[in-house]
Amino acid sequence: MRIGELARRTGVHERLLRYYEEQGLLHPERRPSGYREYGDEDVNTVRRIRSLLAAGLNTSTIAAILPCLRDDGDRLIPTCSDLLADLHRERDRIRRSITDLQTSLGALDRVIAAAPPDVRRRALATHDVGH
Q: What residues contact 57, with CB distance under 8 A and at least 6 apart?
């Protein structure tokens, strides 16, 4: 199938599919005309890529672990023994990021809460604060 069909079947824009190829995540065949030719398995690969991106992994990490994953219905199954250590490291990195963001959020909440009532009234009158 051509890139437009892959985009239609996966819901991923053609530009993003080309980016995935540049990052080593997709490996389409090339026709003599230069057109990319994708197989049915590429649909599943794009879905795996999207799942891993949604889990917070970057494309270089995905490129390293993608060959060690297979689909089992609605979940991804690791198939390489050393992959679990990599996944644990990524989970720890994400957990640290969440902790850092929660700390930042708490600091902002404290600053906002410290605003004098007249400052809050003016802010609410001129801006949509609190969303």
A: 65, 90
